[in-house]
Specification:
This protein has four helices and no strands. The chain is an all-alpha fold and about 110 residues long.
């Protein structure tokens, strides 16, 4: 009986020792921060697609510079990956079945990127 009580006590001590209070979190103040010029913050921006960020109308240029560890550009990697996906299909996760990608969809992805 005493041994059982001691064993249960030994199991409970680590659980109590690991418990801690979580840090409080606060929602950000939705008002714009006027301590800086121009004012920052305020509204939550509307979600935009990558395609909308690449429209030619807004001022400035959109530049994307990605290079992998092996020195190849990400666009070259994308082309190779799309080629393999068209031939063999692809998996987003190992637990999911393979998906097919059409020539048209691969072409749209390449054009967007």
């Amino acid at each position: 009986m005493i041994a059982t009580g001691a064993a249960l006590g030994a199991l409970l001590i680590p659980a109590v020792a690991l418990a801690h209070l979580e840090r409080p979190s606060y929602w950000p103040d939705p008002e714009p921060d006027t301590s800086v010029t121009p004012s920052a913050g305020g509204e939550v921006p509307e979600a935009r697609s990558l395609a909308s960020a690449l429209k030619k109308g807004p001022p400035g240029k959109t530049r994307v510079a990605c290079k992998g560890d092996d020195g190849r550009t990400s666009l070259r990697k994308l082309k190779r990956s799309l080629g393999q996906a068209k031939k063999k299909g692809f998996r987003l996760r190992p637990s999911q079945p393979k998906k097919e990608i059409s020539k048209a969809k691969a072409k749209r992805l390449l054009k967007l990127n």
